[in-house]
Design goal:
The chain folds into three domains: about 10-165, Globin-like; about 200-305, 2-Layer Sandwich (Alpha-Beta Plaits), CATH 3.30.70; about 315-395, Arc Repressor Mutant, subunit A, CATH 1.10.10.2840. The chain has 18 helices and six strands. The chain has helices at about 10-20, 25-35, 45, 50-70, 85-95, 105-125, 130-165, 165-180, 190, 215-225, 250-260, 275-295, 305-310, 315-325, 335-345, 350-360, 360-375, 385-395; strands at about 200-205, 230-235, 240-245, 265, 270, 300. Strands 1, 2, 3, 4, 5 and 6 form a six-stranded mixed beta sheet that branches. InterPro entries: CdaR-like_regulators, CdaR_GGDEF, PucR_C-HTH_dom, PucR_C-HTH_sf.
């Protein structure tokens, strides 16, 4: 798409506006991110932490790409964004089984970006003729840029889809998807090289670091299985779905993750047979979504640790109100007071066991419990369930 070059004055105004867009306000980025991840059509992307993070990176990449082009050559057509972020998300969308309809988020982002750009343009000049020309050129430029970028990503998605239909990886992934969907499959164990009649623990192994060495994901999958061989499926470039027999050793896994700083792991609950294969995977996905939503600081969690928190934090605003109402001043008290109460409740209100769990003296624990009790809106006695739930939310929220 092309248009007549704008006047020198309008080119200068577009350049000034593009310089503003090169340093976007946080609230602009938040608005674009919220819009591109909202709605039923984008639910699958918003629910997947890796795809959601990739979408946010792509939003920034597109905004900065267009702005930088208009600083260099104001008012000239901008080619498709061929940076790593938008092309990487094409691969991940295909590997999640999504089609080009997922690119609807680009149109939503375009609408928000056009409105924000209009606000910038209106701040540059009060001359209506200048403003009309600025908006005429720049809004056509934004639309043409998004069209070109979406076309490039669609082309990449078709290439990725063709690649995925060939080879053993595609067969293994297809078999796993059919198992997860409950379809009857003959010879699944032979295709996967993995026994299904045992107890399984599923895991989601992923990285939200765009610069991560993705070989770390495969090393983490091996660490989950110990000396055995895991079943590992590439769910996206930065995500592996993994199954191992039995239950991974927590100590060994934590030690392995210390050597793999870019990796995060969400574990499902151990369960037997094909049904357990499915259920443990869904538990791992629930755990991953919780970690991504609440706790950037936590790199490892198991479903049995976070099941309650996952249930009560689906509505984050209600969960926040529950924490504040239940804990009162304890919510912002020193961390050792909250840890004392959390350990006390976890040990069924046994002070000696709680002190041992915290590696502290029993009298020290009792003093902390007494201080914490004074900060609670109502005494801990008789409200251990509510207080314990609120403290778990705080712990996993970080």
């Amino acid at each position: 798409m092309s248009w007549d070059p704008p006047s020198p004055r309008v080119r200068e105004l577009i350049r000034q506006g593009a310089e503003i867009a090169l340093n976007p306000r946080p609230e602009w980025l938040a608005e674009i991110d919220a819009a591109t991840l909202a709605g039923e059509a984008r639910r699958a992307i918003a629910a997947d932490p890796v795809l959601a993070a990739a979408t946010r990176r792509t939003n920034r990449s597109n905004l900065l790409f267009w702005a930088a082009a208009n600083v260099r050559a104001p008012g000239q057509p901008v080619p498709a964004n061929d940076d790593a972020a938008p092309l990487a998300i094409a691969r991940d969308l295909v590997r999640r089984g999504l089609d080009e309809s997922a690119l609807d988020s680009y149109r939503v982002g375009e609408a928000v970006a056009a409105r924000l750009w209009t606000q910038i343009a209106c701040s540059l000049t009060s001359d209506t003729d200048e403003l009309r020309e600025v908006l005429d050129v720049s809004l056509r430029s934004i639309a043409a840029f998004v069209d070109a970028t979406v076309a490039a990503i669609s082309l990449r998605m078709r290439a990725e889809r063709a690649a995925l239909t060939q080879g053993s990886h595609a067969e293994r992934r297809e078999t796993v998807i059919l198992l997860l969907d409950g379809a009857p499959i003959t010879g699944a164990e032979t295709r996967l090289g993995y026994a299904l009649d045992r107890t399984h623990t599923a895991a989601v192994v992923w990285s939200d670091d765009p610069d991560a060495d993705l070989r770390q994901l495969d090393r983490a999958a091996d660490a989950l299985a110990g000396a055995a061989r895991p079943l590992s499926v590439v769910a996206s470039a930065a995500t592996r779905w993994v199954w191992v027999h039995g239950r991974p050793d927590p100590g060994d896994l934590r030690a392995a993750l210390d050597r793999l700083p870019a990796v995060r792991v969400a574990l499902g609950s151990p369960a037997a047979g094909v049904d357990g294969f499915r259920r443990s995977h869904h538990d791992a996905l629930t755990t991953q979504r919780l970690l991504a939503r609440l706790t950037p600081a936590h790199r490892l969690a198991a479903f049995d640790e976070v099941e309650l928190v996952a249930l009560v934090t689906q509505d984050s605003e209600s969960a926040d109100r529950f924490v504040t109402r239940t804990l009162g001043a304890l919510e912002t008290a020193p961390v050792e007071l909250r840890a004392a109460v959390r350990a006390f409740i976890a040990e069924q209100c046994n002070a000696s066991r709680a002190a041992a769990r915290l590696f502290t003296h029993r009298n020290t624990l009792l003093r902390r419990l007494a201080r914490a009790d004074r900060l609670l809106p109502r005494p801990l006695a008789g409200r251990a369930v509510e207080v314990g739930a609120a403290l778990e939310i705080l712990h996993w929220r970080g």
